[in-house]
Amino acid sequence: MNDAESASSMRQQRLRIAIQKSGRLAEGSLDLLKRCGIDLETRTKDRLLTRCVDFPVDIMHVRDDDIPAYVSDGVCDLGIVGLNTLEESNLDTKKSILRRLGFGRCELALAVPKARAFLNLEELHHKKIATSYPKVLRRYLSEHGVEASVVELAGSVEIAPALGIADAICDLVSTGITLASNGLRKVLTILDSEAVLVGSVQRLNDCQGGILKVLLRRMDGVMTASHSKYVMMHAPESALEKIRSIMPGLENPTILPLAGGKVAIHAVAREQVFWETMESLKDVGASSILIVPIEKMIL
Ligand code: PRT
Ligand code: ZN
Q1: Do 24 and 18 contact (CB within 8 A), yes or no?
Q2: CA torsion sign, 116 to 118 to 124 to 129?
Q3: Residue in 190, 192, 209 with CA at minimum distance from that of residue 201
Q4: Label partner for 220 (CA 20 to 30 A): which of 11, 32, 160, 180?
């Protein structure tokens, strides 16, 4: 086998995942992969491709806008990208999303100058809207029967109304600080976005399909764990029902008898545990209440 053949055969036995090289999704993507056992600590900053030693995947570090095309062209098998970028691309959203990943959350929203009254979308009829998301915006406007002129801008969309280029904008909003500091206010959300894992699964061979299965199981485990807490407490056995009513998300608690009529309760809680919840537990007789984060979980 020559070098090219051996590289191609190696490629067939590994998955190639594209993530953002630097930017708002880079850290979250690396962190998720790390928690799935794909650690890239040895990566040098400018390297395009990092080979993972502990798991059969290679990571491509690229600009986020290129990820959907790389996935659809088979340059990589999977990618982590914002739903906003995916929706603006030519990749079939429904077929390609494998998981919603819960980080990089933001909204693609319509905003108008603060002083401008806005009651409904029809007010933008025949008006100009600046955006870097022309495809998503045009689809939204046509679905709602509004004819507006879409002004495509590559960046700094928020200054378009002040420059007189547009009457409104359609841009990503997270805290809303950028809108406020440009004298704008959000009036409608067009898309709720977050990072998503995309892939062309039909192109994978059996070996790659097997790797994907393990990877997805690990991702599910990481995401379930991040929504869950491990709860430990001592309580009188008679308080068990009240404890369950305070924390209905407690799953199959392990109950261990302690000396003096009390029990130790250990359980996974699929809910947020607030200070108020802990105080209510204390009020019904629980003590030594510990709430511990869970790193990984396979059910
Ligand atoms: O270099 P490369 O092309 O890879 O990166 P990029 O500059 O195109 O993207 P980047 O890193 O800015 O964003 C990557 C992805 O992060 C986006 O596609 C979204 O999915 C997600 N994301 C989450 C955001 C935001 N939050 C966000 N707030 N992307 C951009 N913004 C910008 C927004 O465009 C606006 O300018 O932040 C500003 C608004 O923020 P607030 O907090 O003031 O509302
Ligand atoms: Zn980009």
Answers
A1: no
A2: positive
A3: 209
A4: 11
- Phi (first) and psi of residue 146, to 5 degrees: -110, 130
What confidence tens digit (pLDDT) does each residue in 41-75 have?
Answer: 655 556 789 989 889 999 999 999 999 999 999 99
Mean pLDDT computed over every residue of the chain:
93
Closest CA to 197 of 56, 15, 9, 51: 15
Sign of CA dihedral 53, 57, 61, 64: negative
Ligand 1, CB cutoff 6 Å, lining residues? 20, 23-25, 63-65, 82, 84-85, 104, 106, 171-178, 193
The DSSP call for residue 90 is S
From 174, 190, 192, the mutation candidate for ligand 1 (largest count of ligand atoms within 8 A of CB) is 174
- Nearest ligand, CA 63: 1
Nearest ligand for residue 191 CA: 1
Global pTM value: 0.89
Say how far apart CA 264 and CA 11 lie, in whole Å: 51
